[in-house]
Design a protein that fits this description.
alpha+beta, Ribosomal Protein S5, domain 2, 2 domains, Alpha-Beta Plaits, 13 strands, binds alpha-D-galactopyranose, 6-stranded mixed beta sheet, globular, 4-stranded antiparallel beta sheet
Length: about 375
């Protein structure tokens, strides 16, 4: 009997609006896009875990009983998934995995979440673990939090696993209830402009923002004990309870941003794309000035977008300090505008800007399988 073998692909994600709201238990509006991590897994008859990265041209081997972080870093996303499966007492055997992908790393398109989702999905199939998609999302997040070490929220994994063609997902990060919203853009396209920078601050400042929000919640709780997260807070509560200027700015942004997502969903439903675009600009403004997770490259590109009537809205996307901006651009103007912006970016920032036109696709799925 041949061993079970499966190939799974998991997409990267964009987020239309709702940044840094996931770990504050608010709403987000992400979607899966047409860039993927692909994992081909074959079960083995021994305890070995063999990981082959096509992109890095490296192989890493360890055994099921020796799951530690690796100095190569790229194996950690797979090992983190194995570690979380073991913690939850799922019985898996050795396996060989070939990992490849075309999601640019460090661009804020969640290549790591896609990788973790592809791994957990493939292992679930090969070893018949019986996990639901939602359980796999949570396990992938736990792998990132506990093994890789970034205290990210649930948005990236949820979007990669649960994506639906031509729909965005309005996810309530408190209850994990979700609703698919059709993304009907007419003559407009989702265009991502990649700054090609990832400042080293990204993960430390991310964890700092989480702490600042927690400080804010604890202050609010002293006066309003029923408040469990910034999701439940109002601007009045923030103003009433927080005096520290930095903490106040952070919390104000989150409360406003959660409100913006809900408003943006209504606008999207009503086809009011120009107003939707204005909310995107407002989000950028808040991320840059109140939450302070932007950087000069991102600000430069968003600022340029403001000058074009063919662009309805733009903002930095994801954790911040680099990666992409997301914009809504008229399809006939894409070549012209991005060409001009790339040369301006080069002149002012001395870097190349990359352009990706994103299509919204389905989430994690099997693309090939042998079931002996
Ligand atoms: C990163 C994290 C997500 C989310 C965003 C900001 O992408 O992984 O969980 O917090 O930043 O919205």
């Amino acid at each position: 009997m041949s061993n079970r073998k499966i190939t799974v692909q998991s997409p990267g994600r964009i987020n239309l609006i709702g940044e840094h709201t996931d770990y504050n238990l608010g709403f987000v509006l992400p979607a899966a896009i047409n860039k993927y991590v692909t994992v081909e897994i074959e079960e083995r008859n021994d305890e070995l875990i063999e990981l082959i990265s096509i992109n890095n041209q490296q192989t890493y081997r360890t055994s099921l009983s020796e799951i530690h972080q690796s100095t190569l870093h790229w194996p950690d996303y797979a090992l983190g998934v194995v570690s979380e499966l073991q913690k939850a007492n799922h019985s898996i055997k050795g396996f060989s995995a070939i990992i490849s992908g075309n999601i640019p790393v460090g661009a804020g398109l969640s290549s790591s979440a896609a990788y973790e989702c592809a791994m957990v999905f493939a292992l679930n199939e090969v070893f018949n673990l019986g996990l639901t998609k939602q359980e796999m999302v949570q396990l992938a997040q736990a792998a990132e939090n506990n093994f890789v070490g970034l205290q990210c929220g649930i948005m990236d994994m949820f979007a990669s696993m649960m994506g639906k063609e031509n729909h965005a997902i309005r996810l309530d990060c408190r209850s994990l209830d979700y609703e698919y919203f059709p993304v009907v853009l007419g003559d407009f396209k989702i265009v991502l402009l990649d700054t090609q920078v990832k400042h080293s601050l990204a993960s430390s400042e991310y964890n700092t923002r989480r702490k600042e929000c927690e400080i804010g919640i604890n202050l609010i709780k002293q006066k309003y004990p029923s408040i469990q997260s910034l999701r439940d807070a109002t601007l009045n509560m923030v103003n009433d309870c927080i005096t520290d200027i930095t903490v106040k700015k952070r919390c104000t942004f989150i409360v406003e941003e959660i409100e913006r997502v809900l408003n943006a969903c209504t606008l999207l439903n009503e086809g009011k794309l120009a107003e939707f675009g204005r909310e995107m600009y407002a989000t950028h403004n808040g991320l840059s000035r109140q939450y302070e997770v932007s950087c000069q490259e991102l600000d430069f590109l968003v600022n340029e977008c403001l000058g074009y009537k063919e662009i309805l809205g733009a903002r930095m996307m994801g954790g911040g300090f680099g990666g992409c901006i997301i914009s809504l651009m008229h399809k006939d103007a894409i070549d012209n505008i991005t060409g001009r912006m790339a040369s301006l970016y080069k002149r002012n920032m001395q870097k190349e800007m990359l352009v990706y036109v994103a299509d919204i696709v389905n989430g994690t799925n099997t693309i090939n399988k042998n079931s002996p």
